[in-house]
Amino acid sequence: MTSTVAKNKKKLSKRVTALIITVLLWVFAAFWFAPIFWMLSTSMKSTTLAVIETPPQWIPKNPTTENYQIIFAPSGGLSLIKATLNSVIVAVSSTLATLVLSIPAAYALSRLRFRGRMFIFWIYVAVLAFPAVLFLIPHFFIINGMGLSNSYLSLILPGLGGTFGVFLLRQYMLDIPKELEDAAWIDGCSKFRFLISIVIPYIKPAMLVLSLMTFLGSWNSFLWPLLILSKSDKFTLPIALIRFSAGWGDPYRGIGPMMAGAFFSVAPSLIIFIAFHRYLMKGISLGSLGKE
To answer: What sign for the dihedral angle of Cα 79, 81, 84, 86?
Structure first.
C-alpha cells in the first residue's frame, strides 16, 4: 500500500512539473511571438490608425496593403526590390561557396592522416571562441586594399573563412564507419570518389543545417554591409530598410511602412525556421565537440 501511494505521488509530481514547464514555455513563446504579430498587424493598418489607436488593436479592422505598396515603390533612387535581389544573390552565393570550401576541408581533417591535423583542427575550434565583430576592422582594410568595396564580393568573401562549417561537417564525417571506408578502398575507390559517392550523401543533414545557418546569417547581416557599402545599388535589405526608415523623418508618420519593411525582412527567417526547425535542432545537437 505504501509503495503504491509513493508511486502515485511520484507520477503526480512528474505531471505537475511537466505542466509547469509547458506553461512556462508557452508564456516564453507568447513573449517571443507578440512583437512579430504586432509588427504584422501594424503593417496592415493605415499610418494614422497605427499611431492613434488607444488601446492598440492587435487585429486590424480594415486591413490594407498600402504600406507594402509604399515600401516596394522606388523612393529617392532606393528600391527595396533591388535590395531584396542583392540580399538573395549574396545569401545564395555565400551558402554555395561555404559548402564548396567547407566539405573538402572537413574531409581532410576527419578522414585523412597527416602531420599537424589535430593542431589545425584545434585552431579552428579556438577561432570559434572569438566574436565575429573582432574581425570587422581587419576585413575592412583587406577588402578596401583589394579594391572590392561596394561589390558583391565584399559581402561574400569575409564569410568564407568561417570555421563553424568545417567543424560541423567534420564531426558528421567522423561518424562514417571505418569498415565502410576500408571496403571502398578494397573495391578500388579513390579518395575523390569516396568523398562524392559516400561522404556527401552521408552528411546531407549537416549540409542542410550549414546551408540554412549560412543563408540566414548572410540574409540578416547588418553591421558588415553597413561598414563596407556606400552605394545604394549594392545595399542589402537590412541596410536599405534603415535608409528607408530614416527618410521619413518623423517615425510616427512612417511607422506603417517601416513595420511592413521589417516584417518582409524577417519573414524568410521565420519561414525557414518553421519549415526546417527539426533539422536545425537535430543537426546542431549531433555536431558534438567530443570527437577527435
So the answer is: negative
159 and 19 assigned to the same domain: no
How many structural domains comprise the chain? 2
pTM of model > 0.90: no
Task: With H, G, I as helix, E, B as strand and everything else as coil, classify residue 148.
Answer: coil
What single-letter amino acid sits at 220?
N
Mapping DSSP to helix (H, G, I), strand (E, B) and coil, where does residue 57 land? coil
Burial class (CB in 10 A: 0-12, 13-18, 19+), 150: middle
- 153 within some domain: yes
HSE (side-chain half, CA atoms, 13 Å) at 230: 3
Rounded distance between C-alpha atoms, residue 198 and residue 177, angstroms: 11
Q: Are residues 126 and 29 located together in one domain of the fold?
A: no
Instruction: Split the chain (292 residues) into runs of 10 and give each run's mean pLDDT.
Output: 64 81 89 85 72 67 81 66 91 94 90 84 83 86 90 90 84 85 81 87 88 90 90 88 72 74 86 79 57 51
**What whole-number distance in Å separates Cα of residue 41 and Cα of residue 122?**
48
| HEC string for 18-55 | HHHHHHHHHHHHHHHHHHHHHHHHHHCCCHHHHHHCCC
* CA-to-CA dists, residue 230 to 93, 236, 239, 258, angstroms: 21, 11, 10, 21
